[in-house]
Specification:
The chain has about 425 residues and is mainly α. It folds into two domains: about 180 residues, Growth Hormone, Chain: A; about 200 residues, MFS general substrate transporter like domains (Growth Hormone, Chain: A, Up-down Bundle). The two termini are about 30 Å apart.
């Protein structure tokens, strides 16, 4: 582990887990949270906007060669995930050194300009380059979470992290709808819309977003802090933090089962058309918005962060089990509310992790979390698709096409075991935090 920064030695960093929120005036704090919420929503909205049109553009550039287009589109996804993996810790470390505001604003500006490049791309390689740059610039989500940790009291962080989770859901609900409508006019129009939203948000943030990390609480910039391995090393600094990181990673990996296989599974098992699948995915996103935007705050106050974490993971086990077994489509829908409650686990785990580190490490922590999400994003699709292919190749074996959902259930049971172990006692120096229920 790298040497502790000066502010930690002064009793304001790691020796003071959780720290105090930055002294941002209340009114500006609310405006700042609104800006960060909109930033995350726009990032996710932009990703969702591409869903209906990017495959079509790739196919057009490949001359209608469907196998080649599928291969190239897979490369687009891998490139984006790799950029998130490598640059999330870079942006987190930069925000720990120079503050959150410049990193978030430059990221918004970069994303907006990049979408302009993609809208004008004359070749497939320009389009791929745009997707790579987009992955680099949109890695600011880690910094957005660090910003919220800076300006929010420890006992309220789970609720605020839940609200950012709601921004994810909102973006995924609205994005494909906007992209489909705009793409029916012109396949490049969604890129212009995404560019306009990002650039307008950057201009708005320039006037309303205060800095959240005071100079005295910043950390020096070192190579060890600004690379994936260095960021992940932070998670080994405390046994409880490492355990919670395991919970976060395993839960995120399990979460990739539906994005990886949803369309294929729903089409094969229930013979659903694109319209029904679209409504189902919208219901998934809407459930996430309701739970993470409205229920996590009261739920954490009632159960404590430990209880919310265990409740969320258990609800995920129930939801995935229903969806893996469901012989009829309407039964699959019964699992959606339980999977929505799974959002409790992600918000509570993130909040518990943030309590165990001081202000100068919040950016690095969120960068490490984003790294783990990137790794899960690289492993999950391959893992679940292979399990699905094996299940279809052996139609008589239990549990049939729902096998990937049961692999996800097994992962979540591991996450629950890790969570029980990691949250048995509160973090050192944070006796006042309500970690347990």
């Amino acid at each position: 582990m790298p040497p502790a920064p000066k502010d930690a030695e002064a009793g304001q960093g790691i020796s003071d887990p959780g720290g105090d929120p930055a002294p941002v005036p209340h009114g500006r704090r609310r405006a700042a949270f609104g800006f960060v919420f909109v930033t995350v929503a726009i990032d996710m909205l932009s990703v969702g906007i591409f869903v209906p049109v990017l495959p079509r553009l790739v196919a057009d550039f490949m001359g209608g060669d469907e196998p080649a287009a599928a291969t190239m589109y897979g490369l687009f996804g891998i490139a984006f995930a790799l950029m998130q993996f490598f640059f999330s810790p870079v942006q987190g470390a930069l925000s720990d050194r120079f503050g959150r505001r410049p990193v978030i604003l430059f990221s918004n500006l970069g994303v907006g300009l990049d979408y302009v490049v993609m809208a004008l791309a004359p070749t497939i390689w320009w389009l791929l380059a745009g997707r790579v740059i987009s992955g680099v610039a949109s890695a600011s989500i880690a910094t957005a979470f660090a910003y919220i940790a800076d300006v929010t009291e420890p006992e309220k962080r789970a609720a605020r992290f839940g609200m950012l989770g709601a921004a994810f859901g909102l973006g995924f609900v609205l994005g494909p709808a906007i992209g489909g409508l705009a793409g029916s006019v012109d396949p490049r129009l969604p890129f212009w819309i995404a560019a306009g939203l990002s650039l307008a948000n950057a201009a708005y943030g320039y006037f309303v977003l205060p800095e959240s990390l005071p100079p005295e609480k910043r950390a020096p910039l070192r190579l060890a802090r600004a690379n994936p391995l260095g960021a992940l090393t932070l998670l080994r600094s405390q046994p409880q933090l490492l355990g919670l990181a395991g919970v976060w990673f395993v839960s995120q990996l399990a979460h990739f089962v539906l994005p990886s296989l949803g369309v294929l599974y729903l089409t094969f098992r229930y013979d659903w058309d694109a319209r029904t699948i679209g409504f189902t995915m919208a219901a998934v996103g809407l459930g996430a918005v309701i739970v993470q935007g409205g229920l996590i705050g009261p739920g954490v106050r009632l159960l404590g962060e430990r209880g919310a974490l265990l409740l969320g993971a258990t609800a995920g086990v129930i939801g995935l089990t229903i969806q893996g077994l469901a012989p009829h489509g309407w039964m699959f829908w019964l699992g959606i509310p339980f999977n929505s409650l799974w959002g409790f686990a992600h918000a509570a785990a993130n909040s518990l992790m943030s309590r165990r580190l001081g202000p100068s490490e919040q950016g690095r922590l969120q960068g490490a979390n984003a790294c783990m999400m990137g790794i899960a994003g690289l492993i999950g699709p391959g893992l679940f698709s292979q399990v699905y292919a094996f299940a279809l190749a052996h139609p008589g074996a239990f549990p049939g096409p729902g096998a990937p959902f049961f692999v996800a259930v097994a992962l979540l049971l591991v996450a629950i075991a890790l969570a029980v172990r990691a949250t048995r006692s509160p973090p050192a120096g944070a006796a006042g935090d309500k970690v347990s229920s």
